[in-house]
Amino acid sequence: MTKRKALPPNIIIKLGKFVWTTMWQIMMSKLAPRNSSGEYIRPSSQFRNWINQDAENAYQPATERYHLYVGMSCPWAHRTLVVRALKGLEKAISVSVVSPSPVEGGWIFNEPEKGCRSLAELYQLAKPGYTGRNTVPVLWDKQTNTIVNNESAEIIIMLNSEFNEFADKPNLDLYPAELQEKIDCWNDKVYHAVNNGVYRCGFAQTQAAYNQAYEKLFATLDEIDSVLETSRYLCGNQLTLADVRLFTTLFRFDIAYYGLFKCNRRRIQDYQNLGGYLRDLYQLPGVAETCNQEAVKHDYYGNLFPLNPGGIIPQGPELTNLLEPHDRAKFPVSI
């Protein structure tokens, strides 16, 4: 019997790389749309209605009328939970948590809601024939049984201003008129370079696209660290929505983005000012309760198969440092 010769190792390696790279590109095209340069392009949210007291508006502020659907690992959904907690809107606006399914490729309810087992089905209930992305957060109207808005940047503005009648902390204004221009400027910079910048690093499909996103990310973090040398928050000594939007990315940075998304120049806790700033925000009343480290690790490492094919979830990092003194009280706080 003739013994078959084994394939040379170099051919096995080349074949393996070809098959994996091809499959990786197919999976990444579904997970993260890209442009011709391999840069991740985030699609826009499609439900953009507003809640306000305009007499002609179908969506009027009310208690127990609106509901949030969130995923605990998602930084965009996390924003809404932070503002809800800071404003004291827990009794006025209810919440349901959905979890990502790596098998089905979407958010799934722990228990069926409104006859729906998945968030995709809820989107179809709100808008039959909908073909867009099924993302969190979702601001749902129980009265009309539909989605009001699924853009986190707009939802947190509404939570800040339109529910004061029902809020425990109505005088807390996270988007004051006199700071809105500065807040918007920070939001624009932080969104492109940091909030979405970490995804542009992690989901980059070429070395050049990754390098560009990486350099912009850390240039901006360095700039923010410098600003925080002389002020408690981004816009001075008053907490604003700009801080909320940055916080949810910073909380996930050392847990997931540093390793899984290759954002590894330095950790947030290694920055002179950003580390204390993160601890300061985390220790605000109600904020820590919105943070779920285990969900972040499980969902990022366990569900983003193209980035972590083995599905191994790291045991660290330890987040006890978030409870350590933050030294940010040296700056006066404006309300």
Number of domains: 2
Please count the helical segments.
10
User: Regions with pLDDT < 50 over 5+ consecutive residues?
Assistant: none
Q: Report on the biggest sheet.
A: 6 strands, mixed
Overall mean pLDDT stands at 91
What's the CATH architecture name of the largest domain? Up-down Bundle
| Strand content range | 5-15%
The secondary-structure element order is HEHEEEHEEHHHHHHH
Return Rg in Å: 22 Å
CATH class of the largest domain: Mainly Alpha
Oligomer: single chain
- CATH topology title of the largest domain: Glutathione S-transferase Yfyf (Class Pi), Chain A, domain 2
Care to describe what's here?
The structure is a single chain. The chain is an alpha+beta fold and 335 residues long. The protein has two domains: 66-166, Glutaredoxin (3-Layer(aba) Sandwich), CATH 3.40.30; 177-330, Glutathione S-transferase Yfyf (Class Pi), Chain A, domain 2 (Up-down Bundle), CATH 1.20.1050. It is built from ten helices and six strands. A six-stranded mixed β-sheet has the order 4-3-2-1-5-6, with helices on both faces. Strand 5 (138-141) and strand 6 (146-149) form a beta hairpin. Helix 2 (75-87) runs parallel beside helix 4 (152-161) and helix 5 (180-195) runs parallel beside helix 8. The radius of gyration is 22 Å and the shape is globular. 36% of the residues are buried. The model has no long low-confidence stretch (mean pLDDT 91).
